[in-house]
Amino acid sequence: MSKVGILGAGTWGIALSRMLANTGHTVTVWSALPDEVKQLDQTRQQKNLPGMTIPASITFTSDLPAACTDQALLLLAVPSVYVRSTVKQAAPFIPAGQLIVDVAKGLEPDTMLTMTQVIADELSQLHAPKMRLVALSGPTHAEEVALDLPTTIVAAADDEEAAKQAQDIFTSSFMRVYTNPDRYGVELCGALKNIIALAAGISDGLGYGDNAKAALITRGMTEIKRLGTKLGAHAATFDGLAGIGDLIVTGTSTHSRNHNCGLLIGQGMSPAAAKKQIGMVVEGINAIPGALELAAKANVSMPIVETVDQVINHGLDPKEAVQQLLNRKKKAEF
Amino acid sequence: MSKVGILGAGTWGIALSRMLANTGHTVTVWSALPDEVKQLDQTRQQKNLPGMTIPASITFTSDLPAACTDQALLLLAVPSVYVRSTVKQAAPFIPAGQLIVDVAKGLEPDTMLTMTQVIADELSQLHAPKMRLVALSGPTHAEEVALDLPTTIVAAADDEEAAKQAQDIFTSSFMRVYTNPDRYGVELCGALKNIIALAAGISDGLGYGDNAKAALITRGMTEIKRLGTKLGAHAATFDGLAGIGDLIVTGTSTHSRNHNCGLLIGQGMSPAAAKKQIGMVVEGINAIPGALELAAKANVSMPIVETVDQVINHGLDPKEAVQQLLNRKKKAEF
Q1: What is the ipTM score, two decimals?
Q2: Any idea which fold B192-326 has?
Q3: For the domain with range A3-181, which CATH number is right: 3.40.50.720, 3.30.565.10, 3.30.1300.10, 3.20.20.140?
Q4: Looking at chain A, which residue has its C-alpha nearest residue B152?
């Protein structure tokens, strides 16, 4: 059994910390907020995971050096917007060669870096070339992992040994972990799938059915794959658990913020009002500029992403948008 | 506009006939049952498509030669078990070089032939090598096409001109048709996806969640693709609308007989009792022997299909089956 440090105490960090502790690992969870640490430690409950009890064996702390020291694995589970600042703060306490697993998904604005690329960027001056970075991603509602429901996930790393070590640690009685050599492809899927989930929500909001939604999910992943492979990622990643698998869960779930924001827009609400009503970050909207920039750079056509951009940012009527997609020039599937 | 003959008056044949007639094509629908012809002609309703009115312009007939003569396109829309006998009966009236589109899905027991291969087999003595055969397949609930809801579909043929002609005729204001050069791959997906839909239903019946279902759908299509590419089909077909797209619709729909049969089994009913309660053909169960035979022939591992076979035909407890799948040797995703 291993020692694991977890940075971040949101739903996903806590659901994974509970699973790891129940598997027998020694788990320390860090949060930047002392009040959150106190509340989690005392109540052993996470407010967004009702009914789940946090094992007594988990240590909560707001002491960052303590959380980073002497761990077999360090799990980054803070929201994507805090990844750079958290790693910057933690870097002095992270040993060279530390196995680091990231579960945050997103592209950093301006740099277009994925989350493990941001981590590498922050650590590079201290530790290069000894970094062992893994992206952990797949079709994984935290709420289901918190209930021990069967789940699969991908541990992706350029370094096969790092991926296998993460596979060993995250394998549990209900979680099956596959290794994958394509960290960049896995992270690209995680960052871009929310745009397609937004499109699926808009389709539902317009009153369209399963045929339209399956078409958007399938053709949406086709265009993400077209972009990703042009950027050097592996085609099979996009057909796998972190690609189409994660998009199926996100695009068909009524728990997804991206799907629900799209739903409101499809029902006639303005994008600005829908964003306001959701009240939290809608990753799909934030990912649009990055996707378009990468597509332009790679000279790849992404008709669904471009149409979502027109609806969200340029006032195109959703019904008209669907007609535009349907009436494009007749073509071959591949 | 074109003349189209449709053999078969089930939900899918009627939903397509209505769309084609509304697009301006001249449509004749044949049924083997004179009573059905009379009822459809008089009521302009199909009992399983409530609320849909059949256009007055459609001609219904039980005269097979009339339905097959002088058509730009002949659509085979009979259940898969009737494809061979229908084509045998119609063959003398089908002109050489006739464009034939099939929508029935399945593998013929014993021969392992797909439906267009069965058609080719029946017509070969009369017409070879002048056959123009297209498989039309995708994520397409008939109920949604009957309501003009946006839908995508694939027209697959070895002969590109045949695929394009079908594309032209089936394109409508709400249906987008992609051509595909891999007829065999498209038909293999249609025949085998129902086994995975059965597995998804079993998972739901056990009370498992979206994570498990997305994993079964993703990994299920991975093993169908592994088999199909070994048998000469194109990998991209399995990642496309007739592959993962159709499986998403079938595996997540509560309208699918295969999903519902699995659901009952997951809830504890015996496979025999579940089959009896569904009361209609459960294609996923019928497809298992063919899938296993092809997998053995191609020397390909299909763990999900093999596990479904154990549950359906050899008394394995569904919960135990899930544990077996989760506890397989750790591996790489691809």
Answers
A1: 0.96
A2: N-(1-d-carboxylethyl)-l-norvaline Dehydrogenase; domain 2 (1.10.1040)
A3: 3.40.50.720
A4: A215
Check: CB of residue B27 under 8 Å from CB of residue B21: yes
Tell me whether residue A164 is one of the annotated catalytic residues. Answer: no
Integer angstrom CA distances of residue A95 from A65, A102, B198, B301:
11, 16, 49, 42
Residue in B139, B209, B218 closest to A241 by CB: B218
Backbone angles phi, psi at B253, to 5 degrees: -90, 135
Out of A144, A181, A208, whose CB is closest to B211? A144
Query: pLDDT digit string (tens) for A222-256?
Result: 999 999 999 999 999 999 999 999 999 999 987 88
Q: In whole angstroms, give the CA distance from residue B178 to residue A334.
A: 9
Structure tokens at B87: 């084509």
- Rounded distance between C-alpha atoms, residue B279 and residue B257, angstroms: 9
A-B C-beta contacts closer than 8 Å: 193
pLDDT in tens, B213-272: 999 999 999 999 999 999 999 999 999 999 999 999 999 987 889 999 999 999 999 999
In CATH terms, the superfamily for domain A191-326 is N-(1-d-carboxylethyl)-l-norvaline Dehydrogenase; domain 2 (1.10.1040.10)
Percent of chain A with pLDDT over 90: 94
Q: Which of A234, A328, A332 sits opposite B179 (nearest CB)?
A: A332
Residue A285 and residue B273: Cα distance in Å, rounded?
48
CB A237 within 8 A of CB A185: yes
Residues of chain B contacting residue A178, judged by C-beta atoms under 8 Å apart? 331-333
Shortest Cα–Cα distance, A44 to chain B (Å): 24
CB-based contact B328 A176, cutoff 8 Å: yes
Beta-carbon-side half-sphere exposure of residue B7 (alpha carbons within 13 Å): 33
The Cα of A205 is separated from the nearest Cα of chain B by a number of Å equal to: 13
